[in-house]
Amino acid sequence: MKFSYSLLKKLVPGIPSKEKFADVINLKAFEVEEATGNSMEIKITPNRFADAASHWGMALEAAAIFNLKTKLDDKPLNIPKGKGKVRVVVENKHACPVYVAHYLEVVKIGETPAWIKSVLEDCGLRPINPVVDIMNYVMLETGQPLHAFDADKLDGSIVVRFAKQGEKIVSLDNHSYTLTKEDLVIADKSGALAIAGIKGGKRAEVDKNTKRIIVEAANFNQANIYKTMKRIALQTDASMRFSRGLSPYSASIGANRASGLLKEVIKAKVVDSLVVAGKLPGKEIIEFNTDKFNSLIGLSLGKKQAADYLKSLGFKIITKALKNKNSFLVEVPPLRQDVTIFEDLAEEVVRLYGVNDLKPTPPLVGLVPVESDDIVNLKKELRTILVGFGFSEVYNYSFVDKKEADSLELMNPIAEDKKYLRVSLSHGLKSNITLNAREFATLRIFEIGKVFSTKNEEARFALGVKEPEAMLHLKGIISQLLKRLGLTDILMKDESNNSLTIKSDGVVLGVAHSLNSNSAIAELNLDALLKIVIAENEYRPLSKYPSISRDISLVVPRDIKVGQVLEVIDDVNLNHIQNVDLIDYFDNFEDDKSRLSLTFRLVFRSEEKTLTDEEVDKEFKKVEAALVSKIRAVIR
């Protein structure tokens, strides 16, 4: 926002050079982006528009920072009221909490004084005529936007209402706008006179022949102004201020200052005034505790010093006795809408004290070891193992198109082809394999990420393989991967010729399926895997009793999978079984190409006693019988 350095010097006599002024304001208040000629571009944060987006507000800041006095023309005027010259109806006081109208009679419009023109030009505004120029000048001074109507061009009372659907208005710069019923307007019987808070209309424009004017200063709901400004693509100085939120109390300040300048510059006579207001916000009073402040900031300020800083910014100190002698009450100025709690007051004090003047003090905190995150550790271990298996990690978008994501549609998508959240990692890996199929004869990729449902999100990892006998290799990779993670009970159950279910400890971890003879994909639930890994790796004291191992070699039909054999053994419900592993696999029978030879090692151990050979043999025979009867195995 542009400020006139000349006007600031007039309002705060004694401020330093523009360069020094900019340096200090940068440190203690706002960022000065540019200072060329007589103009200063100062960045006002949205929460400070109500008070600091004006020369009076910036003057108050400068006076507090440089310990100077302000010279503001804010003396109250004796304004007549209730004479019946101006009539205003506000239909919605939520949309327009305050509407102030001053009725003035003009003898001659005349010329705008050079000192007003100079300030307008410093701030990037074009002088037009004394009435319009004074409205703009007062907006720059006080921060309150104003508008002037030619009273003789009005048709009856002024009405603040929402526009009719399709209602049109021609603005001061001869642009036509079509309004909706959500746009607020200032109107009379004949239609809209202005787009409230944004732009005046042509019909009641002030010109050189104007004899009677109505000065409007109002407060409008910031959300309404913002929506209209965006919809009609019209940003003005007024809309920029109203859309960020102004104080309802600034309307009377602006109207009084404008009437005073009209009286001074063009000898206008204030004849009547009217204020239409809803319920205005009450006084904000906050307790400031010096001990709490010093503990929070790390200073040793006294009660008087803290109070002086706040008084210099326009806060009123209430000397009412409180129980805590180091506390006092602070009444917040009506325009300081950003100050609502103690911490806001503390920030005001410390920035005037000087943030750069705070001495660094190490925090008094206890040091604790860094906590270990199990899911992070598991992901790290997965990446290490899979890279060792020759895999490359890929990252796909969580946002996908409709055919990949069933029904999880986003209300505000980032792109037309990213309107849905993924429910699976497999879709992305399929696309990766397809896109890279022409470039690579073999491919091993994996992804770790989140998938989404209507109720929650879930961590998963997926593997994709493109190579001869892909499904067989993928099964072996998954088996070795889970073993490396510490799992011992691993079961892969065939669901069909193209897919299998992956289980451990009776929990379904995921599925693997074949895309074609050379491509396969598996997807596992990382959250479920984590629980089993933690359980498997929990510390358990070693049994003091020895284990007994038995190897069983069998010949099975070629269509029997290793997972089926393990499933049969698991279903026997053996006593004292500790582990079952495949230790040998042989399929080169010259006499019979249709059969396989497998050898498994069964480990038995009791936590309560030393097992006898007879007890182990009894359990072992159960296994032999089950394998013969259920999968036609021949025990060797």
TrEMBL record:
<keyword id="KW-0479">Metal-binding</keyword>
<feature type="binding site">
    <location>
        <position position="344"/>
    </location>
    <ligand>
        <name>Mg(2+)</name>
    </ligand>
</feature>
<dbReference type="InterPro" id="IPR041616">
    <property type="entry name" value="PheRS_beta_core"/>
</dbReference>
<dbReference type="InterPro" id="IPR009061">
    <property type="entry name" value="DNA-bd_dom_put_sf"/>
</dbReference>
<keyword id="KW-0067">ATP-binding</keyword>
<dbReference type="Pfam" id="PF17759">
    <property type="entry name" value="tRNA_synthFbeta"/>
</dbReference>
<keyword id="KW-0648">Protein biosynthesis</keyword>
<dbReference type="GO" id="GO:0006432">
    <property type="term" value="P:phenylalanyl-tRNA aminoacylation"/>
</dbReference>
<feature type="domain" description="FDX-ACB">
    <location>
        <begin position="543"/>
        <end position="636"/>
    </location>
</feature>
<keyword id="KW-0030">Aminoacyl-tRNA synthetase</keyword>
<keyword id="KW-0460">Magnesium</keyword>
<dbReference type="Pfam" id="PF03484">
    <property type="entry name" value="B5"/>
</dbReference>
<dbReference type="InterPro" id="IPR045864">
    <property type="entry name" value="aa-tRNA-synth_II/BPL/LPL"/>
</dbReference>
<comment type="subunit">
    <text>Tetramer of two alpha and two beta subunits.</text>
</comment>
<dbReference type="GO" id="GO:0009328">
    <property type="term" value="C:phenylalanine-tRNA ligase complex"/>
</dbReference>
<dbReference type="InterPro" id="IPR005146">
    <property type="entry name" value="B3/B4_tRNA-bd"/>
</dbReference>
<keyword id="KW-0963">Cytoplasm</keyword>
<dbReference type="GO" id="GO:0003723">
    <property type="term" value="F:RNA binding"/>
</dbReference>
<dbReference type="Pfam" id="PF03147">
    <property type="entry name" value="FDX-ACB"/>
</dbReference>
<feature type="binding site">
    <location>
        <position position="338"/>
    </location>
    <ligand>
        <name>Mg(2+)</name>
    </ligand>
</feature>
<dbReference type="GO" id="GO:0004826">
    <property type="term" value="F:phenylalanine-tRNA ligase activity"/>
</dbReference>
<comment type="similarity">
    <text>Belongs to the phenylalanyl-tRNA synthetase beta subunit family. Type 1 subfamily.</text>
</comment>
<feature type="domain" description="B5">
    <location>
        <begin position="281"/>
        <end position="360"/>
    </location>
</feature>
<dbReference type="Pfam" id="PF03483">
    <property type="entry name" value="B3_4"/>
</dbReference>
<dbReference type="InterPro" id="IPR020825">
    <property type="entry name" value="Phe-tRNA_synthase-like_B3/B4"/>
</dbReference>
<dbReference type="GO" id="GO:0000287">
    <property type="term" value="F:magnesium ion binding"/>
</dbReference>
<dbReference type="InterPro" id="IPR005121">
    <property type="entry name" value="Fdx_antiC-bd"/>
</dbReference>
<feature type="binding site">
    <location>
        <position position="348"/>
    </location>
    <ligand>
        <name>Mg(2+)</name>
    </ligand>
</feature>
<feature type="binding site">
    <location>
        <position position="347"/>
    </location>
    <ligand>
        <name>Mg(2+)</name>
    </ligand>
</feature>
<dbReference type="InterPro" id="IPR004532">
    <property type="entry name" value="Phe-tRNA-ligase_IIc_bsu_bact"/>
</dbReference>
<dbReference type="GO" id="GO:0005524">
    <property type="term" value="F:ATP binding"/>
</dbReference>
<protein>
    <recommendedName>
        <fullName>Phenylalanine--tRNA ligase beta subunit</fullName>
        <ecNumber>6.1.1.20</ecNumber>
    </recommendedName>
</protein>
<dbReference type="InterPro" id="IPR036690">
    <property type="entry name" value="Fdx_antiC-bd_sf"/>
</dbReference>
<dbReference type="InterPro" id="IPR045060">
    <property type="entry name" value="Phe-tRNA-ligase_IIc_bsu"/>
</dbReference>
<keyword id="KW-0547">Nucleotide-binding</keyword>
<keyword id="KW-0436">Ligase</keyword>
<dbReference type="InterPro" id="IPR005147">
    <property type="entry name" value="tRNA_synthase_B5-dom"/>
</dbReference>
